[in-house]
Write a structure and sequence with these properties.
alpha/beta; TIM Barrel; eight-stranded parallel beta sheet; 8 strands; globular
Length: 273
Amino acid sequence: MNFSDALSAAAQRADSLLCVGLDPDPARFPGPWRGDAARILDFCTGIVDATRDLACAFKPQIAYFAAQRAEDQLERLIAHIRRVAPDVPVILDAKRGDIGATAEQYAREAFERYRADAVTLSPFMGFDSIEPYLRWDGKGAILLCRTSNPGGDELQGQTLEGGEKVFERIARLAAGPWNRGRQLGLVVGATYPAEIARVREIAPTLPLLIPGVGAQGGDAEATVRAGWRRDAPIAVNASRSVLYASSGADWADAARRSAEATRRQLAAARERV
């Protein structure tokens, strides 16, 4: 089963379009754990355990672990997800992008060391920086296309000769000549629903990872209407709104309540598409 099929299956099992982002910031940990990087694994496994039946994917952000010298905790976290939620795909949010020989090592890091099902990549250096990831059968490579941050427009929204915008060219390449083995997906931000709709028009079957719902203020209804199709999976990411729903002793229960509310909101929007 490739990543797109695994994501679709997980979404169907959980009746969920929600991807739970795992961005552990010790400064925001609850109670006596606050400021203690040694508790990253405990905090993240608590979030996973509280939301494992509500998520279609988990997305650990590697920088939050590496900055705390906690890569070993990331390895153990993904191993924990494999034990308690073996059918929920893991997307390693790394945004890698480098020449072929280096990309080979980044691919090994993502798929061999961390055992992720997919990894986010920057397509700026072209197909030869992406191809090494496609050698891993069944693994996903999710390319930055139209990101949720305002500054993304400085490059992604620029018009190329011939009238096509940069993000449209990325989507067209990902849906066409680059998509060997049906392994590619695209990152599109919930803060730009019109661009999500345009990407979906160009790439009607590619899986979309959609950050920006929750703390970034993306509209769930508009996001699902623009991106969801029955034969094309989406994973709508929420991180801070779930992780830090409470700083008290009820932090795990609060995370579950927030995740469930977002899951219901996305499901209701899907029913109206």
